[in-house]
Amino acid sequence: MSIHGTHEPEFVEVLAEFERNFAERGEIGASVSITVDGKTVVNLWGGVADPETGAEWTEQTLVDVWSCTKGATALCAHILADRGELDLKAPVAKYWREFAQNGKDGILVQHVLDHQAGLSGLREQLPEGAFYDWDLMTDALAAAEPLWTPGTTHGYHGLTFGFLIGEVVRRVSGRTLAEFFDAEVAGPLELDFWLSLPEDQESRVAPTIPPDLTKPGTPVPSLYMLAMSDPTSIPGLMMFNTGGYMVPGEFNSRRAHASTIGSVGAVTDARGLAGMYRPLALGGTFGDVRLVKPNQVAVMGQVTSACAVDAAVLVPTRFASGFLKTVDNRHLAPNDQEGILLAEDAFGHSGMGGALGFADPRARLSFGYTMNQQGPGIGINERGQSLVDATYRALGYHQVTEGGSWFR
Known about the structure:
Layout (H helix, E strand, L loop, with lengths): L2 E5 L4 H13 L4 E8 L2 E12 L4 E2 L5 E3 L4 H14 L26 H5 L20 H10 L17 H13 L3 H13 L15 E2 L15 H8 L4 H7 L13 H5 L8 E2 L1 H12 L3 E2 L2 E2 L3 H8 L3 E3 L9 E4 L2 E2 L22 E4 L5 E5 L4 E7 L10 H13 L3 E2 L6 E2 L1
Parallel strand pairs: 5-6
Antiparallel strand pairs: 1-3, 2-3, 2-15, 3-4, 5-7, 8-9, 10-11, 11-12, 13-14, 14-15, 16-17
């Protein structure tokens, strides 16, 4: 497999692992980008963007990064908080009056960022195409009764997070989530990163290739097994009450890419993910662009919620006000081992099947990895983790056996 791009000599192991992903780990098309001290030290891509047409993955190829989108959405909220326009400790209903229905008047913005709001899914059946109708989704969430007492536990809001935080951003800023992100983040940083993809960019998108969970030997995560056996369970409501969005192929449609789905719908490449996190790795500012002040970066990296068994994904998870933190699930059964092993100071977000973007302020590192072939879990698999591991080793880090975190 031909690999293209550049890397600094000390990051040659990242190149080697990227090549191994194609040769040994089932990679089809992918890109990886890394910055240190604001400088791009790795920019690699390769493989096939669309197996049906044989189109190559080029430097201009984009792909849906799934839940990496949540990092972009959370960043928008933190920008408003940093400016004093949004209080993360205030009730959501302070900004979104209709949200107070059905006993939700006490749900804080922080609860939503921490996946503690009890709105991982909706009980009422959503109509076809619901995720493409912002008002329909926000009205449904405003009217909903929580699935548990908010603030008492957390359960990953895998597909509702973006509507919840995105509506808060809209109410506070007067702009849609996509408009706000483009004006405040993607535009100033000159990122190829879209929360609502223009039609003239559609031809650049590599279709997502979902895993074949029916293939013998494929480790099917517990959340999928429960969701399929009980659609009324929290995992079932999260995964299957989506108005058809999770039907295979639908998420690759033009309608999906054009819509703003702030949980899972962003389209970008590895440079876009690494570029978004680059200012956050440097105290909040890169060049002439300040996203937030250093004290807000500290807030973004601080663990605010941790759970031994997440109510929605059924494995341990740790959150930091909208971002994922390192969590070692390697001790679990083989079907639930996908986690994310970073240094403790790092924060970011993975995407279903393996994509990843994060910042590590202590290492002054930002990282982005995108691919079209999904793994079976919602965390990162050995393809992405091998690139993370090689990156930290290049920076002189070592891994702690207990907990899996990297340290220097």
